[in-house]
Amino acid sequence: MHQLSIFDLPATGHTSLCIRIPNPYQAAKLRQLAAALQESIDAKKNPAIAQQRPTRRRLRIAEGMYEEAKLLQQIQSWLYAMADAAEVGELPEILKSISNKSQLEILRKMSSTTWNEEDIKKVFKSDKGEYARWQLTLKRANIYNWQQVSQAIAALKQLHSPCKEDPVEVQIHRMETELVGIKLHEFFPTPRDLCARLVKLAHLQSGMRVLEPSSGKGDIAQAILHHHPYVHLDVVEIQSDLRKILKLKGLNIIGCDFLTEVNGEHWQAVIANPPFSKFIEHTLHAYNCLVSGGSLVTIAPESVFFRSENKFAEFRQWLKSHNAWDEKLADGSFLNSTHPTNVATRILIIKK
């Protein structure tokens, strides 16, 4: 048998007669309150600290601000829903005197799953401190006791219930956050703007088979699917913790070690940010995985273009013989990565 919560109580009054009286003035005021929250929501979702070099401390601060933004969005959604109801004369009586954000913030806190009936009763038994201030704020909304609080919360939830977060997305976000500040061998995720640039240079088309051979946590792969959702994408990643993230993201993992497990001319495009210590090996192998006419678009370390050892000189000659094209990236292109590096880099494109 389903047990009712106090927040499942009917939000209507005791009378069976319902007379709709539209209140466009109140609707306009509520929409004005809702719109005024947008600047704060945007600032908290995209704080300046999030644009600085990532550290665990900065990430925790940015995460906290993002959570605050989500709470403000819930209040904003309530305000817009109340405005819509007021405009057609359907705003529940218990909500008609709500006039500011603070009143809704208190109701939101009390509507949390960590609160129960006894917790709400304690608020109205207190005569000092924060709870006493809450009482004064709610009195201005004509809410004087715990029963009215329960009725108001039920009415708000009936007007607009917040969407539940996808548990898989929450897990992915948690796992990615835990990576910040942890050193993984040659793990330098590609910044978002650079991912988009690589994808653009690959000139992908629907139906193409595409390979991302050192996928990390999937930044390039996600950019590929964002811009070209109808390609057939395969990914490879050698580190098990990163493969777990790729699996949660629903990416098609075809192997762990690109150099030993992936073979054959199967792909029309390869887009890569390979481990620089094995850059030449990865690049030659990626080229061999292309079908005739395919393209390899890869991040390359600047050292490849000036080191004097034989294998680098031979590789440069190989690039020349294959009419490779390269583009120098701006200094610090990877400083905004979650695992930043100041290594100078280029984009390298090779057609087969």
From TrEMBL:
GO molecular function, one term: methyltransferase activity
Key words of the record: Methyltransferase, Transferase
Superkingdom, natural source: Bacteria
Residues in coiled coil: none
GO biological process, one term: methylation
This protein's record includes keyword Transferase: yes
InterPro entries linked: SAM-dependent_MTases_sf
Protein name: SAM-dependent DNA methyltransferase
